[in-house]
């Protein structure tokens, strides 16, 4: 397969097992954001530049809301496949349900998971119930607010105005492309080996917020400078922290100042819990017709739509 984007060349080389190394993933306290904006900006910028991953706490989304979103997802995933198949993923539209269909260029096997994606302008006929819709649209809006808060910090450091990224992700625009993705990784049979819950990849978007559950670990990150050595650091899952990472779109937009780093979800090893695992990701992806162009012009301008089209084409079967 030949890939047009340099990001994809990177991804096709990252499938190996590598080694593990403990390293601090910073926890940044967002309380009193308006008053502490400059201090928080400094902290998120440094963590993003150094590791590309960080966690935020006191982030303003109530734990009860996070748990309600997880419970709603869990109830949906418990339905028979034949029922879930009434809401099929619309390829290229990041909306609907898929199972075992995402093949990462790094490993070539399907991620051992199912997911339901919500991209607001693409949801006609895809809502399983009113309750599901109400709960998750509300949660999506909370995630967006948090993502825009963090992106406003990056905007000012890059020399854009504070609302630059909020305009680029305006939810009232039919070209809105940010996505909430509910993820369910299957329980792993005792004899299963060699499969990944999520193969090594970078995210396509500007900024990802990842909600995980206490004790459901498995996420590992490989900061850019260790890419060749393949040294992976576990990111502890916890209910109160939101794990954040920079995606490829913001890496481009920042002329590579902010790194989009490889990460993956490993399958449980010997002696580890082989039960199912849940997570919820919010991908802040710029609206379709927004042009991505960094302050220093390092890459040719490309619309967000064209950029995402190329990334999705390389990641799903049958494209
Ligand atoms: O489930 C996780 O912890 C990570 C998921 C992820 O990296 C993704 O969906 O892009
Ligand atoms: Fe990811």
UniProtKB/TrEMBL annotation:
One of its GO terms (molecular function) is oxidoreductase activity. One of its GO terms (biological process) is antibiotic biosynthetic process. Residues 175-286 form the Fe2OG dioxygenase domain. The keyword Iron applies. Pathway: Antibiotic biosynthesis. It comes from the Bacteria. Pfam families: 2OG-FeII_Oxy (PF03171), DIOX_N (PF14226). Keywords: Antibiotic biosynthesis, Iron, Metal-binding, Oxidoreductase. The keyword tRNA-binding does not apply. Transmembrane segments: none annotated. Belongs to the iron/ascorbate-dependent oxidoreductase family. This is 2OG-Fe(II) oxygenase superfamily protein. The lineage of its organism: Bacteria, Bacillati, Actinomycetota, Actinomycetes, Streptosporangiales.
């Amino acid at each position: 397969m030949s890939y047009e984007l340099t990001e994809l060349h990177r991804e096709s080389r990252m499938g190996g097992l590598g080694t593990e190394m403990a390293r601090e993933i910073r926890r940044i306290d967002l309380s009193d954001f308006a008053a502490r904006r400059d201090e928080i900006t400094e902290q998120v910028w440094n963590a993003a530049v150094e590791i590309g991953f960080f966690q935020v706490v006191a982030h303003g989304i109530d734990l009860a809301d996070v748990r309600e979103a997880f419970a709603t997802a869990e109830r949906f995933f418990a339905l028979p496949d034949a029922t879930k198949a009434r809401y099929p993923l619309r390829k290229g539209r990041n909306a609907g349900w898929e199972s075992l269909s995402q093949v990462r260029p790094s490993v070539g096997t399907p991620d051992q998971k199912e997911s339901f994606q919500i991209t607001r302008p693409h949801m006609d006929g895809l809502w399983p119930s009113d309750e599901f819709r109400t709960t998750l649209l509300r949660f999506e809006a909370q995630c967006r607010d948090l993502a825009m808060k963090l992106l406003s910090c990056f905007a000012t450091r890059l020399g854009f105005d504070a609302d630059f990224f909020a305009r680029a992700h305006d939810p009232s625009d039919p070209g809105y492309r940010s996505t909430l993705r509910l993820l369910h990784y299957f329980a792993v049979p005792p004899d299963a080996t060699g499969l990944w819950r999520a193969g090594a990849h970078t995210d396509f978007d500007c900024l990802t917020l990842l909600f995980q559950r206490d004790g459901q670990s498995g996420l590992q990150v490989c900061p850019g400078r260790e890419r060749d050595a393949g040294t992976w650091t576990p990111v502890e899952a916890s209910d109160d922290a939101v794990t954040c990472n920079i995606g490829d779109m913001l890496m481009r937009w920042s002329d590579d100042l902010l790194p989009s780093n490889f990460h993956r979800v490993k399958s449980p090893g010997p002696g580890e819990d082989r039960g199912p695992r849940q997570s919820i990701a919010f991908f802040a992806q710029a609206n379709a017709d927004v042009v991505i162009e960094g302050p220093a012009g390092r890459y040719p301008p490309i619309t967000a739509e064209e950029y995402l089209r190329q990334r999705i084409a390389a990641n799903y079967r049958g494209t």
